[in-house]
Every structure is written in structure tokens, then in C-alpha cells.
Design goal:
globular, single chain, 791 residues, mainly beta, 52% strand, 22-stranded antiparallel beta barrel, 8 helices
């Protein structure tokens, strides 16, 4: 029986084809190169280092430093070594690598919604709708936002931890089905270190890309250090905006062309940023960490291609107005921790200020009768001779302000009883202004204080959520081999929504019609506050069945916050204007094992989850004329299995794989308050592949005087549905193969790589627009190199 050592606390709808068919398909043709690389590794020169066992991975999932194998939670951890070896640099990189994670993106980097274990309602990204079911943490601060994942550049990071299943007791709101934790490297006063990386790659059919990254750890004294990190990334485009497009509208009978918008490789990205962290050992017992992170991300174009011509060799789309985005954030953090008796006290506070802006082409709306009906001249809101076009542009301006404080006390030592207790406070404000414009449409009346010029729809909102929580977990060693844990989190949340929604024509003429005769003749205002409090629980029991194996069972709960809908009319049509938290309950049996003298690590879990009062955001004109709204509907069930295996197959050769199966579907009809059937029972949950797998083969060897390696990484994602409704599109399965090799010449080295070697076109998300569906996709085959140096 191994001795558990308590470490100090830290700061910190289509169905799957049979597996055999999937494997047979994926190892044929273009994927034989991976098999050749792995097989060839066996006859390459001797390994650079004779490694006898796998290295330990230290995680902080329970807010303590612990060996991954001693934590009775389903965790996939990408430590600093794995991040570097697998060239993880962005959200897309690690989301593809994590087998129990799926996502959909809205066409811009930093606009994704993340899902764990199939818990997806297909949320449409409406800023007034429900929050995600997965929380994202940046060090100690939750940074979760609706369809706006914080796409921080991954460089000089300690690790990324993917905690599957509800994490509500220690992590709280929106950690309903899982938690993603991005953990930065901290200053180290013991030694100086520095380095830089310069990268370049070329994309088939696209422009070139480049990157410059650097870090420095500078000791200031024996007990203080500062760590500085910076990066600048330019990614060239590959999607063409094709000219010659013509839109002819039924009314007012004009056409729109995009000849002046034609541009090759029009989707470009620029990302730059920095991190600075100061660490001070105040004395033998107390430490202080202060940090700031800044990043700016700007894009031109859109990461979508024409869905109708999806299989065409040239990836292209026709857009009639500019597409662009900007996303800028600053996070400031302070962590103070120290020992008091046989306890560790930690305070962690953070402030996040984020601004983003999006401009999108919406000209295709004119082909859809819904938008013609509301946005054209059919109602006679403006003079007929001024009805020149119904071309449309959408803009979204967002301001996020988030402040969090956490104070926790944790027991130390090797006693049978261990615990963590704490308090958490958060203030999260989201201001957003969304405008739909029709250039060339001149209103008959301009009313001061109302939208003017070409604005035909707007939502101007201020959404705030304040949270207070008290949490705790207590573990007790029942025997030398059995440990039991119970946990709870009491939370109190206050939601506030203020603002206005206005249909354009009424915004120009406050005297047109009457509300009774014409509901569009006035703006819709909201100013409402609602509060909710509840308690969620967790229970876990872990059994060490040997020195290197553990079996555990967990029952746990996770939740998403409730909220307020924009339209007060829902009080009449739906009976309520609010929606309440939905609860995901998880029953899980998992295992952790280290086998063959430490050469194999095999972890996994089987689980069954029930999802009650699912929050569902949808537009239903019979309930609300103005707005998409969120309702608590019925239930769903999810069952699955996930596992990850790492095998030190021979000296220098390491093989690893992680995979997940999920069967997720509704278990009751989703009936809207209007009485309409939204989703029938037995519908598969969207954007969730039934099967996903990641395989990595890495061979390290000596090539002359250089430590060298060759590596192949293969990701396969099964088919899924784009939405939960009947407007859904099927999303095809895809596989992506990355090849990499490099040399380490002692302080400096070089890597060469082929990303997406099979030139696969992946369907990350199919926008289910009945008027102009498009597919968010990945980058084609790219070949490049990176030069690095360490001091």
C-alpha cells in the first residue's frame, strides 16, 4: 500500500458508425503515414534518454498539489511537457486533443461554446440566454462567457486540466458538466531562465503565418522573482470571398452584388499579448503572487465556408459586407497564502476587463421571409420610394467586467481527516449593444432618443450576476485503503437585467399606431431583478486496491445560474419572465492505475448523468414578439465511458491515447409554454460526437550529438447534429493528422511540422440558417518550422 502524502495547498443526431468501421476507415489511405512513422520509429537510432517509467503529473484539481494518480476525479492533464510536445497554442488545439470535450464555434476565434460529456443544449450564443455548461478558469478566476471563450495564447503555461463531470462544490456556477483550467507558470526565485521561439508555416491554398514568443524568469533576490512572457502571432487566411454574387430580393425588387468585396484568403488573425507576474516569499510561511495578463485579438473575414459547396477543393464563401472582430482583455490577480498552525489560508482575487466587437454580413436575411416581413417596407413605415435595399449588417459590442474573491482554509499534514472550506464572491457585469443595420434605407421620421439612420433592430442591455457562495469538502480515511469525501456548496445569486429592445421602424416613429394595434410601435424595456439560492452536494469514496491502483465512485451535482428574459410580455404568455438554475446529477465509477512497473498509466470512468429543468433558448413569436427567450423545459440523460492510456512501449517510444463514448438524448418532450413541441423525447443532444479519440506516438532518439524526436498525433471526431431542433444540419465526422519532428542541440533547437497532413476539411459547426447555411471549418494542410532557444 503506498502512503498518501498530503501536499500543501496551492494558489492556483446522426448515430456513430461501429468502432471497427471507423478504425478501418481512418487507418487507410492518407492515415497510413502515421502507422509508417510509428513503425519506423522502432528501427531508428537508439533513444536519447533511457526512461524506465512514466513521470508523475502534478495537478491541483482539488486545490492542492497532488499526483494525478491519487486524485479520485476524472482528469486529463496536459502538463508543460505535453503542451510543448503537442504544440498546443490555442483553444482549438487543446479542444481537439481532449477526448471528452466538444465545441461549436460561431465563425470567429474566441467565439466558441464548450461542452463536456455530451451535456449540450445547443445554446445559440444569445447574449441574453443561458450561460455555458462548462466553466473556464484562468488560474484562480472563472472567465466563462456566452459564446465567447477566452482564447488565451498557450505559451509558457504550467498545464491545462480538463475536469470531467460536475465540479460544483469547489468551482461553482457553470461548472455543471466540467471545468477547463488554464494554469500559468509562476515566478521562481531559485534561478534565472529565459527563451524565445520563432515560427513560420505555409498553408495550402492560403497565405503564410508567423509567430514570435518569449519568456524570462528573473530572480530579484533570494525570495523574489518576476516572470515576463510575450507573444505576437499572425495567421494568414485561406478562405476566399468570391465575387460575382448577386442577391435579388422579392421586395423592393432590387439586387445586391459583392464584386467590390472579392478577396482571396480574407480570413486573417493577429494576436498579441503579455503576462507579468511577481512572486515574493514574505517569510518562511507566507507568499504573495501578483500578476497581469493582457491580450488583443483582431480578425478580418470569417472562418466559414459555403455549406452547399463544402466538399469543393477551394474553400470559399460569398459575403456582401465586411466581417471583422476584435477582442481585448486585461486580467489583474493577487494571491496571498500562508500557514497558520496546521492549516493553509489562501486569498485569491482577480479583476477581468474585456471588450469585444463583431461586425457581420447579414445580407442573406433578405431571402428569408421572416426578415423580409419585419425589416422591409411592407408595413409602410417609410416612404416606398425610399425602399432601396434590405441589405443587412449586424454589429455586436460587448463590455465584460468581472471581479472575484475567494478565501479558503485547508488542513495540512497526514491526518485521517482533511478538509477544505471557503467563501466565494463574484460580480459579473456584461453590457452589450447589438445593432442590425440596413444601409441605404432612410427612415421617414427621426425621433430624438431613438435609433436613427439605418438601424432597424437593436438590443441595448446591461446584464449583471452577483454570486455569493460558501463551500467545503471533507475527506476521511476510513481505513488505510479506503477514503470517503463529502462536499457541499451553498450559493446565493442575484440577477439583474436592464435595457431596451426595439424593432427599427417603431424606433423612428413613436406615434405610429398603438401598442394594442401594433406591438412593434414601441420599444420593449426591461428592468428586473431576481435572486436564487440553493445547495448542491457531492459524495465520493475511493479504494486503493493496490500500491498503484484505485477505484472510486462519485455522486455529484452541478448547475448553471438562472436568469431574466428581456420581454415582460412573457409574464402573460409564459407565466414567468425568469428561468431557474438547471441541475446536472452525475453517478460515476472510475479508476486510476499505474501498471508494468510504472510504464503504463491507465485511467478512466463510466458514468450516467441526468439533466433536469434544462435551460433552452429559442425564438417563439407566439410567446415574445421581440426576443429570443430562455425557458426551463424537460430532462435528458447521458451515459458514457472515457479513458486515457499512456504506454512507455520501449526506450524512447511513448504511445498514448484518450477516447470517449457518449449517448446523450432527451427523455421527455420539450413543450414550450405556448404548447408547441420544441423537441421530441429521444432527440440526440447536439454538437456532441458519440465517439472521439486522440492518439499520440512519440519516439525520442539520438541523432549524432542531438537529442531528436519524431511524433504523430491523430484526432478523430465522430458525426453530430448542429442543433437540437428540427432545423439542425448533420455534421460529418472528421480526422486530423499532425506530424512533427525536431532536434535539441543543447540550449537551442528546431522543429518541423505538417499540420492536418491529410488535408481534412472538418465541420466544426454548421450554422443552421435555412436561407444560407455555412460551415465553420479548420485550416488546410500547413507545413512549417519553429526555431527555439533557451538560456
Amino acid at each position: 500500500m503506498r502512503k498518501r502524502i498530503r501536499q500543501p495547498a496551492i494558489s492556483a443526431s446522426p448515430k456513430i458508425s461501429p468502432l471497427t468501421e471507423a478504425v478501418r476507415e481512418q487507418v487507410s489511405g492518407k492515415h497510413l503515414v502515421a502507422a509508417a512513422l510509428i513503425g519506423g520509429a522502432l528501427i531508428m537510432p537508439p533513444p536519447a534518454v533511457a526512461q524506465e517509467a512514466l513521470e508523475e503529473i502534478i495537478v491541483s484539481a482539488q486545490k492542492r498539489d497532488e499526483n494525478l494518480q491519487d486524485v479520485p476525479i476524472s482528469i486529463v492533464a496536459l502538463d508543460s511537457t505535453a503542451l510543448r510536445e503537442q504544440a498546443i497554442e490555442s483553444f482549438e488545439d487543446y479542444a481537439l486533443t481532449l477526448s471528452n470535450v466538444s465545441f461549436k464555434s460561431f465563425g470567429y476565434p474566441g467565439s466558441a461554446t464548450v461542452y463536456f460529456r455530451g451535456a449540450s443544449d445547443g445554446g445559440d450564443g444569445n447574449s441574453s440566454g443561458s450561460t455555458p455548461s462548462v466553466c473556464i478558469y484562468m488560474d484562480e478566476q472563472p472567465v466563462t462567457d456566452i459564446a465567447a471563450n477566452l482564447d488565451i495564447h498557450i505559451y509558457d503555461m504550467a498545464r491545462i486540466e480538463a475536469l470531467a463531470g460536475p465540479q460544483g462544490t469547489l468551482y461553482g456556477a457553470s461548472c455543471q458538466s466540467g471545468s477547463l483550467r488554464i494554469i500559468t507558470n509562476k515566478p521562481d526565485p531559485s534561478e534565472f531562465s529565459a527563451g524565445f521561439d520563432v515560427g513560420y508555416f505555409d498553408t495550402d491554398g492560403g497565405d503564410t503565418s508567423s509567430s514570435v514568443e518569449a519568456f524570462m524568469n528573473l530572480p530579484l533576490s533570494d525570495n523574489a522573482a518576476i516572470r515576463l512572457v510575450g507573444w505576437s502571432v499572425n495567421e494568414g487566411g485561406w478562405i476566399d470571398n468570391v465575387g460575382g454574387g448577386v442577391r435579388t430580393y422579392d421586395y423592393p425588387g432590387v439586387t445586391l452584388t459583392n464584386d467590390d468585396m472579392a478577396e482571396a484568403n480574407f480570413n486573417e488573425l493577429d494576436k498579441s499579448g503579455m503576462r507579468a507576474a511577481l512572486g515574493i516569499d514574505l517569510n518562511d510561511n507566507w507568499t504573495l503572487q501578483a500578476g497581469v495578463i493582457y491580450q488583443e485579438l483582431d480578425t478580418q473575414g470569417i472562418w466559414e465556408i459555403d455549406h452547399v459547396n463544402f466538399d469543393a477543393e477551394d474553400q470559399s464563401i460569398q459575403r456582401f459586407n465586411p466581417d471583422s472582430s476584435s477582442d481585448e482583455f486585461t486580467q489583474i490577480s493577487l494571491t496571498l497564502e500562508g500557514e497558520i498552525g496546521n492549516h493553509r489560508l489562501t486569498y485569491a482575487g482577480s479583476v477581468l476587463d474585456r471588450e469585444s466587437y463583431y461586425e457581420s454580413d447579414y445580407s442573406a436575411y433578405g431571402d428569408y421571409v421572416y426578415w423580409v416581413y419585419f425589416y422591409s417596407c411592407n408595413f409602410g413605415y417609410i416612404d416606398e420610394d425610399e425602399c432601396t435595399t434590405i441589405n443587412e449588417i449586424a454589429t455586436r459590442e460587448n463590455q465584460y467586467d468581472r471581479t472575484t474573491h475567494e478565501l479558503r482554509l485547508q488542513s495540512l499534514g497526514d491526518g485521517r481527516l482533511q478538509y477544505t472550506v471557503g467563501a466565494f464572491l463574484q460580480s459579473n457585469e456584461h453590457k452589450y449593444l447589438q445593432l442590425w443595420r440596413q444601409p441605404g434605407m432612410v427612415p421617414s421620421v427621426s425621433v430624438p432618443g431613438y435609433a436613427t439612420d439605418d438601424v432597424w433592430f437593436r438590443t441595448d442591455q446591461n446584464r449583471q450576476l452577483d454570486q455569493t457562495a460558501i463551500f467545503g469538502e471533507l475527506s476521511f480515511d476510513i481505513s488505510e485503503t479506503v477514503r470517503a469525501t463529502i462536499g457541499a456548496r451553498w450559493f446565493d445569486e442575484e440577477a439583474d437585467l436592464q435595457g431596451v429592445v426595439g424593432w427599427g421602424p417603431s424606433a423612428f416613429d413613436a406615434n405610429y399606431g398603438t401598442p394594442a394595434a401594433d406591438p412593434f410601435a414601441q420599444d420593449t424595456f426591461v428592468d428586473l431583478t431576481d435572486s436564487t439560492s440553493d445547495t448542491i452536494f457531492k459524495a465520493n469514496i475511493a479504494w486503493d486496491v493496490g500500491d498503484d491502483a484505485m477505484i472510486y465512485a462519485t455522486w455529484s451535482e452541478g448547475y448553471r445560474p438562472g436568469g431574466i428574459n428581456r420581454d415582460p410580455a412573457l409574464l402573460v404568455t409564459a407565466g414567468t419572465q425568469i428561468w431557474v438554475p438547471d441541475i446536472l446529477t452525475n453517478m460515476e465509477l472510475g479508476w486510476k492505475s499505474t501498471l508494468v512497473d510504472g510504464r503504463i498509466r491507465f485511467n478512466g470512468a463510466v458514468y450516467f448523468m441526468t439533466w433536469d429543468d434544462i435551460q433552452y433558448t429559442v425564438y417563439d413569436g407566439s410567446l415574445s414578439f421581440c426576443c429570443g427567450s430562455t425557458y426551463n423545459l424537460n430532462t435528458a440523460e447521458i451515459s458514457g465511458i472515457e479513458a486515457d492510456i499512456t504506454y512507455l512501449a520501449s526506450e524512447g517510444l511513448t504511445l498514448s491515447t484518450s477516447f470517449a463514448f457518449n449517448d446523450a438524448e432527451t427523455t421527455g418532450d420539450f413543450i414550450l409554454p405556448s404548447g408547441g413541441l420544441a423537441v421530441p423525447s429521444g432527440t440526440s443532444l447536439p454538437n456532441v460526437p458519440e465517439f472521439k479519440i486522440n492518439v499520440v506516438a512519440r519516439y525520442e532518439f539520438q541523432l549524432g550529438d542531438a537529442n531528436s524526436y519524431a511524433q504523430a498525433t491523430w484526432n478523430y471526431t465522430d458525426s453530430s447534429a448542429s442543433e437540437i431542433t428540427d432545423s439542425s444540419f448533420p455534421q460529418s465526422d472528421y480526422s486530423i493528422l499532425n506530424l512533427r519532428a525536431g532536434v535539441d542541440l543543447g540550449g537551442w533547437g528546431a522543429d518541423i511540422f505538417i499540420n492536418n497532413a491529410g488535408d481534412e476539411i472538418a465541420q466544426y459547426y454548421v450554422h443552421p440558417r435555412p436561407y444560407a447555411p455555412s460551415t465553420v471549418t479548420n485550416r488546410p494542410r500547413s507545413v512549417g518550422a519553429k526555431l527555439w532557444m533557451r538560456f
